[in-house]
Amino acid sequence: MEFKKCPRCGNFFHSEIDVCQACKTNESLDIQKLKNYFEENDAKEGFTVQELSVQTGINSRNLNRFLLNEEFSEYINNGSSK
Ligand SMILES: [Zn+2]
Q1: Is the pLDDT of residue 77 over 80?
Q2: What's the burial of 20, exposed, middle or buried (CB within 10 Å: 0-12/13-18/19+)?
Q3: Residue 79 Cα to ligand 1 middle (Å)
């Protein structure tokens, strides 16, 4: 089994999930917040990470990580053509 480094707090841990146990709750809250934000707003417009961070209160480092997820990638205006 491999140790992973938690992207939120930097602790090393063993798990199937992406963050350590201590951060698991905050991680899912942040993701839920982000999903809600996209649902409540016109997600197809495309957002910048900076805007999202201000609007949701999620720090931009975590946002960048979430947005790598395919689930969210369609919402982000990263300047690339589609
Ligand atoms: Zn952690």
Answers
A1: no
A2: buried
A3: 31
